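Explain the record.
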Amino acid sequence: MSDEMPVTMSRSLPLLLPLLLLLFLLLTVLLALKLGSSHLEWVTLWQILLGEEQGVRATVVLELRLPRIVAAFVVGGLLALAGLLMQVLLRNPLADPYVLGVSGGAAVAALLILLLGASSVWMAPAAFVGALLSMLLVFGLARLRGSWEPMRLLLTGVVVAAGWGSIITFLLAVSPDQTLRSMVFWLMGDLGQPTLPLWELLLLLLGSVLAYLMAREINVLARGGEQAAAFGVSVERLRLVLFLLASLLTATAVTLAGSVGFIGLVVPHMIRLMGGGDHRLLVPASVLLGGGLLILSDTLARTLLAPQQLPVGVVTAMLGVPLFLYLLQRSGR
C-alpha cells in the first residue's frame, strides 16, 4: 500500500489543484482587504462586504483596496499566462514575459511622458503604444529573411531589450530630481490604481480562453516543432498566435503596473512541479496562482513598512529569488 500511495496522490493532485488555487486566491483577497496601514477586524470587514457599515473604513476597503486587489490579480494573471506561453514559444524554461523587450519599449514611452512633464493620464496609453512598437520591431527583425525560429526570436528580443535598457538608463541619468523617484518607482512596479481595470480583466479572460482552446496544440508544440508538424499542427501559425498573444498580455500588464518581475518566470514552474504538465491545466492554474501571488506580494508591499509603501516589484523579487532557487533544486532531483 505504501508503494501505491504516492502514485495515487500524484494523480489526484492535478484534479484538486484548481480548487486549492481558488482557496489560496480567496485567502489572499481577504487578507488584502483586511490588512493595510489601518487593520480591520474580521467582523468589521464582513459587515462592510455585506453593506451593513458605511463611512471611512468602508470607503478604504471598497474604493481603495478592492480596485488595487483586482489590479494585482489581473497583472499577476497576465504575467503568469504570458510567461507560460513564452516558455513554450521559445522552448526555454528561463523565458519570462519581458525577455523579448516588450516591457522595455513600454518603459521608455512611459518615462518620456514623465520627463516631458505631461499628465500621468497619458502614461498608460504611451506605455501600451511603446510595448506594441517594440513587439512589431522584434517580430519584424526576427522575420527579416522570411521565416523565424525560436532561437532567432529569442536573440532578437534580447538585443532589443538591451537597447531599450540603455535608453532607460540615459533617461534616468538626465531626469530632474523631482521626477526621478516617480520614474524609479514605476519601473519597479506600481499598483496604485484608483479605478477598477475592467478592460484589462476582460483581456485576461479572453486570453485565458484562447490559450485554453489551443492547449492541445500547445502540448504538442512543447515537444518540438518537427513533432508538432508531424501531428498536423500548423507550427508557423501557432507560433505567431502565441507571440502576439504573449506580447499583448505583457504589454497590458506593463501598462497597468510597470515592470513586475519573477511572476511570469516562477509560476509556470510551480504548477508543473505540482503535477500540471497538461496545458489544459497549466493555463487556468497559472492565472489563478499568478494573480494570488501578486495580491499577496502587494499586501506585503503595503504593510511591511506601513504607512510607507514599497514597489511591488521589490517584494516579488524578494520572494521570487529564493523560490526559484528552490524550484531549480527540486527539478534537479
Summary: Residues 56-90 form the longest helix (35 residues). DSSP finds 14 helices and no strands in the chain.
